[in-house]
Amino acid sequence: MDIKQLKFLLALEETRHFGQAAARCNITQPTLSMRLRNLEEELDVVLVNRGQRFEGFTETGERVLAWARTLLAAHDGLFAEVAACRGQLVGNVRIGMVPLSSFNPTGCMQHLASVFPELTFSVSSLSSDEIIEGLANNQLDLGICYLDRVNRNYFAFFEAGSTQVGLLYDQRHFQFEGNEITWQAAAELPLGMITDGMHYRKSIDLSFHSRSLHPRAVLQSDSTFQLLQAVSAGFCCAVMPMDSGIETGDNHLAFMKLPDAGILTPLGIVMRATEPRSAIAEQCYAEARAFYQK
User: Fold this and answer.
1) Per-residue pLDDT averaged across 10-21, rounded?
2) Is residue 146 helix, strand or coil?
3) What does CATH list as the number for 3-69?
4) Arithmetic mean of pLDDT, 199-211
5) Rounded to an integer, what distance in angstroms lies between the CA atom of residue 246 and that of residue 266?
6) Are 262 and 162 in contact (CB under 8 A)?
7) Is 121 left (phi over 0), alpha (psi -120 to 50) or beta?
8) How far apart are the first and last CA of the chain?
9) Domain range list for the chain
10) Can you give the pTM of this predicted structure?
11) What is each CA distance from 139 to 69, 93, 135, 289, in whole angstroms?
């Protein structure tokens, strides 16, 4: 077994297509298939369900995938650690971030890039639980999530602010008087919502349900971009974070204030507190903390 075989396996998981996985790894499809079969023979298990095309992973394959992610994270962390010992910080900062909040990480990433110019950044949109799991498994370096489920024994974190929300709408399709709307009036509108299960969605649902209101979600999505497209098209309005720059660049989008509207749980930047922990995570966390708390 070698590290490339594990990379091929993860590429297949991400693309769900043999040809696309091979192209991503800069090899031919026959080579990819042969290397994966060699891995199966070495482990003496079947990892991939094959037909005329990729048909998913076997149950054993899913378990091996979990180990492959951990091993590759350790592999990348090892090289980052060695670079740090040479006085360099080189590699990719893997950040998991909840999809909706009054937090824009761009300024911090720009600062980190100026301090550590050889770093690159990957940002994944995940739930708070997924972020905590990713940090625990060393699949993420930093997390930006709500702090209510973060265990101080296993994670270091600092607060990065609270999230205030309002009703986002397109002025070409909806007109309102004043600059504030009641929750009752908002509940009567067609609304776009982030997918069930997200911390943000739970908080918004609580704001409605605590007032005995049951709004109609005409659209649910885990994509902020998709929700913005629907709002711009006039298909719906959406309860969105204020002060996040969501409406920037579109003169037609505007916010109405909602009374007592906010996510009670603070948002924070989180890092795994226990070893092994990459030098990238440690130094970026320390620099981010100084950046936000100066």
Assistant:
1) 88
2) strand
3) 1.10.10.10
4) 90
5) 20
6) yes
7) beta
8) 48
9) 3-69, 71-158+268-287, 162-266
10) 0.68
11) 7, 10, 6, 21
